[in-house]
Amino acid sequence: MPVPIIIDCDPGHDDALAILLAAGDPAVDLLAVTTVAGNQTVEKTTLNARRVLTVAGVSGVPVAAGCAKPLVQELRVAADVHGASGLDGPRFPEPTVEAVPEHAVELLHRILTEHPEPVTLVPTAPLTNIALLLTRYPEVMGRIKEIVLMGGSTERGNRTPAAEFNVQCDPEAADVVLRSGVPVTMCGLNVTHQALATPEVLARFEGLGTELGGICAELLGFFGETYRRLWGFPHPPLHDPVAVARVIDPSLVRCVEANVVVELRGEYTRGATVVDPHGYVGRPVNARVAVELDVDRFWDRLLTAVDRLGRGPGSCPP
Known about the structure:
This protein is an alpha/beta fold and 318 residues long. It is built from twelve helices and nine strands.
């Protein structure tokens, strides 16, 4: 049976591909897409989620806008990475998918309460919505199968020397999630940097021969230019779909158990994820931490999902 999931995101080029993977792979049942401020303002990330679902031909998946700023600090968007729209590169048509008139946290609460089985949450953005859900409605924790998030790192950061963007954008929210007691899997930079969109990968998207495949290649082309300019990467890493891949097939993403805490007070390290797989400090395990990606199978799965969506309902890619 497909795993019921909700993606909480801030599209974002890699969020867009995460949505497509979730919408196009039969191993998961995408119940909703909720949005939050992060890569861009919540107005722009919500528009981008609607754009992605529209070009993918996905209907019946509700989209709900959530928090417009982090719990404590001011919002600092990543326009330097994702552009003024948050999804620069392709030209998108006017979206036909509308957002529902319900706050993301309320939609999350309603689906978790009403769905007949526990639901997996896949946040690929700052964790503001998820933290607010857990603090406002603690009774739904038992309705969450697990939280599989993209964020953090076992090593260095990408927004500060120590902190990854999603966690650094709202460290207090990440702290709430990691201390909640809900099962958490953290897919951080150390594993997502293994998902490099090489020229061969872009050629495979173009080779699908569909409009959607071409849009994906354009998204990755823009993302690649950003990563070359800002960080000197020869090929851009595709972060967010790794979290979805872990839910689709856990064997795609190998994890280890560890205690993870978020640094909230460090002058130079605020937002860092302190990962302790060896139990140095004696704190209990509270997360699975992704360490290794099956790269070839990951790209095969993503391309197959995009191909299925690009060929329309009922398609069965070879």
